[in-house]
Amino acid sequence: xxxxxxxxxxxxxxxxxxxxxxxxxxxxxxxxxxxxxxxxxxxxxxxxxxxxxxxxxxxxxxxxxxxxxxxxxxxxxxxxxxxxxxxxx
Length: 89
Hints:
By secondary structure, this protein is mainly alpha-helical. It has helices at residues 2-19, 31-41, 46-53, 57-71, 76-85. It has one domain (23-85): Arc Repressor Mutant, subunit A (Orthogonal Bundle), CATH 1.10.10.10. It has 5 helices and no strands.
């Protein structure tokens, strides 16, 4: 059992180092993108972010998709992690 946990930890570390950006992005997030990302970092789903911010669901989705594209990540969780690491939010 311990061997499986060690193997999983090694695989996780290898994948993280292979996909993690190594330098701070040379751009900033727009105010609206940063707002949506801060709420996403709190764990709110897109429809709740829309309710809290007064934006439409489509706008929140657009902004979060733009952030993912800017950061070069695939998931919202990755975007939150990278944006937090580089203090963009």
